[in-house]
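Open question from group meeting: does this chain pack into something compact, or does most of it stay loose? Before anyone orders reagents, we agreed to write out a predicted structure and look at it together. Recording both the input and the output here so the notebook holds the full record.
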Amino acid sequence: MSTLIQPEVCEWGIDARTIRKVKFRILPFLWVLYIIAFTDRINIGFAALTMNRELVITSEGFGLLTGIFFIGYFLFEIPSNLLLHRVGARVWIARILISWGAVALLTGFVHTLHQLYLVRFLLGLAEAGFAPGMLLYLSYWFREREQAQAIGLYLTAMPVAALIGAPISGLVLDHIHWLGLSSWRWLLILEALPAIVCGLLTYVLLPNRPEDAKFLSTDEKQWLRMELAHEAQQKMERHGLSALQALTNGHVWHLVAIYFGMLTGLYSLNFWAPQLVKSLSTGFSNSSIGFLIMLPSLVGVAAMVLLSRSSDRMLERRYHVAIPAIVAGTALVLLGLTGSPFVAVALLCFVAIGVYGFLGPFWALPSGFLTGFSAAAGLALINSVGNLAGFVGPFMIGAISMTTHSVYAGLAITGVFMFIAAILVLLLPKTVSVRRT
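Structure tokens returned:
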């Protein structure tokens, strides 16, 4: 029996058996879906190594290009999550995957920067609701005591997407020029196809709720349903928030501010790291840069697993978010002090520890007081407003880079955002409690 799970005494061990089945049947599929999602979101950073020259995109223009995705993402996030809770995960997640795959495919056929702006905006609209929808979906299957580890394992897909995508992207840029199309176009086209395929698989394979799961026995379904219903009832009795109340709740907005600060660093890492490393290593090929960028992602995976386990074992969330934020912020500030690509990659590893490691403990926080439609609305609000950092951070770095002819000042400012996030999370109460309003 896992030491991370602290089940109530049960004669037949149905608790451990059921949770183990759910972990092995639900998490791997969701993990693959999120790898595809995050790859399609950030591969524009690698495409920029050759695309920016062909389409005459400046640093400021690229910052806007990466950020405009999150405007569309923000606009449809909350409605999308409420629809998922109403119509069911299987249909809605399949719809999201197929629609964003189709839009991502079109990205490879644009001819002007303005067309690229439009398609990236539409890609944000299409993908909106996926990330908070998956977090909501996990709350249908895991009790609060298992959520940090479950979320952390699921979200390891984020650095794994970069880990897998970085070398593949570099190789595609260097070697694929089929049918007269530029390599960056093939990069965007080829990495869009898995979303469409997996959208069809989602409709066939993904159960909406535990009661629909064919891999659980009748008694396991009943046990899990009763456990989750008991937790939901306790949350309603303690907090009783409606969807509208969740959108105006002070604790929810406190988490929004923390998440915004942390994602400023995360998206700065994902969108600017390839160009940063290339600026320090002009003799390296795109493939070599891809393999160098793998290292921070690998460190990020380990950080996510270890910090999530530690957070669940200690039942502590605040310091498991604040300490990684401080580590990442310090590394971002120090990046401007080196001219070595290898030292820069080492510092990017520390950034990865912070911006990836905090995710599991952080997303266990709102699950402590949100359930049902309040969870659907609250999780979507935190994710949608927080992800506006994906617009602010990269655009800010691009604008500052145009003025200073260097990305370092912008990266240092994102480090300050990380320090602010650390302060904000330490101001949270040890146990988040809210009053019914």
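Observations to bring back to the group:
The radius of gyration is 21 Å.
The CA atoms of residues 230 and 362 lie 23 Å apart.
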